[in-house]
Amino acid sequence: MKRLFTVTVEFDYAVMAESEYDAKSYASEACRDLCIEDYATALLTVQPVPSVQGQFYTNRPDYDDDSLVYGADEDLPFGEALAAEQERLRAEQIASTQGDLFPKPEKP
Q1: Domain count along the chain
Q2: Which of 9, 62, 69, 88 is least surrounded by CB atoms within 10 angstroms?
Q3: What angle do CA 71, 76, 82 make, to 5 degrees?
Q4: Whether this model's pTM surpasses 0.85
C-alpha cells in the first residue's frame, strides 16, 4: 500500500562565477551530476499525534492543495492525498481500538 511522503532535497554549492545567472547555471550543471538520494530526506506527511487518539499532524502545511502528487496511479491533488491519508490512519486507529473490544478465540 502506498503512503504519502514528503521528500525534501537541500544542498548548497560554492560557485565562482561572474554573475548570479552564471552561478545558478553552474549549480544546475552540478545538480545533473549528483545523486539525489544523498541529499534527500523522506518523512511521512501525516502522522498520528501520540498523545491524542484520532488526531494527526502534517509536516508540510505549506503545500498547495492543488499540486499533483508524484507516484500516484492517476492525477491526485495534494489536498485529496492528505485527506485520504488522514482517513486511512483514522480507520487504522479505529480497527486497532475495536480489536480490543472483542476477545480473540483461544487456540485449542
Answers
A1: 1
A2: 62
A3: 95
A4: no
93, 84 in Cβ contact below 8 A?
A: no
Is there a domain that residue 107 lies in?
A: no
13 confidence band (pLDDT: 50, 70, 90): confident
Rg (C-alpha) for the chain, rounded Å, is 21
Tell which wins on pLDDT, 9 or 56. 9
State the pLDDT confidence band at 52, using cuts at 50, 70 and 90. Answer: low
